[in-house]
Design goal:
By secondary structure, the protein is mostly helical. The chain has helices spanning 18-31, 65-92, 100-109, 116-125, 134-149, 156-174, 180-200, and strands at residues 46-47, 60-61. The chain has a two-stranded antiparallel sheet with strand order 1-2. The protein is elongated, with a radius of gyration of 18 Å.
Amino acid sequence: MSVNGITCCGSPSCGTTCCTSEAKAKTETKASAVTGNTNAQSGVVYEPSAANTVDSSKKTYKPNTELVNKLKADAEARTQQMRNLVEQLMRGQGKAIGTADDMWSFLRNGDFTVDAQTKAQAQADIAEDGYWGVNQTSDRIVEFAKALTGGNPDKIEEMRAAFQKGFDQATKTWGGKLPDISQKTYEATMKKFDDWAAEAQGTATIA
């Protein structure tokens, strides 16, 4: 069994770490503000400005730094867990562990075997609702973008562009087209950015 599928977007260098790091860098500069699950109760925080005493339609969007830090820490921990698993696989099959590129090459080639326990864990992680699955990964990416911007609809396209850049970087690091799960996660994430934009414009439809 190949564990290529447990990569985020599925690549651990992407999704919640690589993809969102670009978004985080951009947002922190402007607002001084990343295979665990997001917590719905720690959602977007909207903080009305003083101008709301005159015009309630005007709002100041404040980054949710608590949620940003939580998502980042969780992503880093889960990514390290996955990296440790890959390194264990490499050592077990006599493969030298050098740079990160060696690890991506090892996964990309798929020339390895895994034990039953590792296989079961990988399958659970990349399942439809697994941590590195399409649903949870795309949710985390968009939730991270909302937390960084405080839900500011004017930042949607900036966040989308940052995700696109991160995905392109992950593809380059991987050394070719990312696994199918990554492509599906990309599509799901873009759809969720579209949904966010539609909701902001008041054009969202009820399924």
